[in-house]
């Protein structure tokens, strides 16, 4: 399933997302991932947020959290 919005990314401010959408003409996370200048556009924190986006979105099961208490 293609990702269609950029806003949920970790360490991406609204102003930065606006820059990506209006200046770079990017409208999806998939477009950002395949952009040739991706590494120049993003800082290290943003690159990690993009890389691990799906992991960040996963919910941690309650049983697993109880084991950590």
Overall number of domains? 1
How many β strands by DSSP?
0
Distance between the termini: 35 Å
SSE pattern, N- to C-terminal: HHHHHH
- Average the pLDDT over all residues and give the rounded result: 85
Low-confidence region ranges: none
User: Treating each run of at least 4 consecutive H or I residues as one helix, how many helices?
Assistant: 6
Overall SS class: mainly alpha
Radius of gyration: 14 Å
Biggest sheet, in brief?
none
Q: Outline, from the CA principal axes?
A: elongated
Helix % is 55-70%
Q: What is the beta-strand fraction?
A: under 5%
Q: Can you tell me about this structure?
A:
- By secondary structure, the chain is an all-alpha fold.
- It has one domain (14-68).
- The chain is built from six helices and no strands.
- It has helices spanning 14-22, 29-34, 38-41, 44-51, 53-57, 62-68.
- The chain is elongated.
- The mean pLDDT is 85.
Question: Main traits of this protein?
Answer:
6 helices
Write the layout of secondary structure elements.
Layout: H1 14-22, H2 29-34, H3 38-41, H4 44-51, H5 53-57, H6 62-68
Quick structural gist:
The chain has helices at residues 14-22, 29-34, 38-41, 44-51, 53-57, 62-68. It has 69 residues and is mainly α.
């Amino acid at each position: 399933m293609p990702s269609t919005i950029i806003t949920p990314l970790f360490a991406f401010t609204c102003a930065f997302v606006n820059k990506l959408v209006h200046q770079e003409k990017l409208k999806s996370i998939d477009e950002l991932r395949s952009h040739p200048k991706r590494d120049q556009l993003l800082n290290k924190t943003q690159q990690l947020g993009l890389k691990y986006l799906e992991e960040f979105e996963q919910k941690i099961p309650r049983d697993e959290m109880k084991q950590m208490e």
